[in-house]
Amino acid sequence: xxxxxxxxxxxxxxxxxxxxxxxxxxxxxxxxxxxxxxxxxxxxxxxxxxxxxxxxxxxxxxxxxxxxxxxxxxxxxxxxxxxxxxxxxxxxxxxxxxxxxxxxxxxxxxxxxxxxxxxxxxxxxxxxxxxxxxxxxxxxxxxxxxxxxxxxxxxxxxxxxxxxxxxxxxxxxxxxxxxxxxxxxxxxxxxxxxxxxxxxxxxxxxxxxxxxxxxxxxxxxxxxxxxxxxxxxxxxxxxxxxxxxxxxxxxxxxxxxxxxxxxxxxxxxxxxxxxxxxxxxxxxxxxxxxxxxxxxxxxxxxxxxxxxxxxxxxxxxxxxxxxxxxxxxxxxxxxxxxxxxxxxxxxxxxxxxxxxxxxxxxxxxxxxxxxxxxxxxxxxxxxxxxxxxxxxxxxxxxxxxxxxxxxxxxxxxxxxx
Length: 417
Prior knowledge:
By secondary structure, the protein is mainly α. It has helices at about 10-40, 50-70, 70-75, 80-110, 120-160, 170-200, 200-215, 220-230, 240-250, 260-275, 300-330, 345-365, 370-385, 395-405, 410-415. The protein contains 15 helices and no strands. Helix 9 (about 240-250) crosses helix 13 (about 370-385). The longest helix is centred in the middle third of the chain and has 44 residues, at about 120-160. Mean pLDDT is about 85; it is low at about 285-290.
């Protein structure tokens, strides 16, 4: 299982793994001590942060060495997961949370009349220092992950070209090792994508997540991450995020259930955006057809005005499309109870309005074919899983729900779906 032509014994790798466990135990002890101090209102022991950073660096070196030297032992001992969790993820979250706290303190000082005094200036300087520290940390982490991925890809390529007799032990061993490398590449592409996302390099993050999806077909995690990227992009692509959350939840081999709560938050934030941007004269069919520049506007200015109006109409229409899926996701109220869900008349009205709006915009070639395909996939997801939070309910599901609640009305779910 050793890689890169290095002669490394299994005993040496196991010794390195033992060293990693010792370092992890030391890090856990320091974290527990810091947590206890904060809970008791005491100052964190002096030098503990510096000690943690030094230990994380040692752990990073040890685990990286194991990952590079023996892919199979690294995989069996979750070296990739431990590297991410203990060396990068925790540290990144710590710096980001400190940035948020310092920004909050600076705002409070200004709000209380502190203005641009020494306190506010000190807070701004602290935010700047932390931001630079985070950027440098992310840059170094990205370099490490790219290097390890490159080494693994080089190791994988000869395996695909190896010639072994069919059914031989050597062929089986190489096949198992290639599967380990592919599984490791899947996880590392997720982690590298996260690093790019934290760095606001969304295009690179998207590429990494798409690669991880190809490396492990049927897994939902990469699509959940793609949905997060879509939400964080400059032009918030809510409908694209909804599509990826649907892909995540409908993954055939390993659905990513965290996407369900993420999806609910997406629906709620979309509803809030619609409420904030609604106008009294804003009807579903209003948009680029009724829009025309007023007055003697110059030709170029009129063209820019039309483009802005088209973009606004498109975003509003797609936001309404997402809101309609929220209604289907929760289900239509058919039993007369005031449970916050839409009734059949309300749903019919909303669907009719959306039909008119989308027909108009599609007629004007406002949406790409790719986006329309995503909308079709979304409709399949929300209608097939209507009233059950996007989940298809099976016979076993009906039986379990009936046992849990004898008063449960399965007819509502069946009618919705």
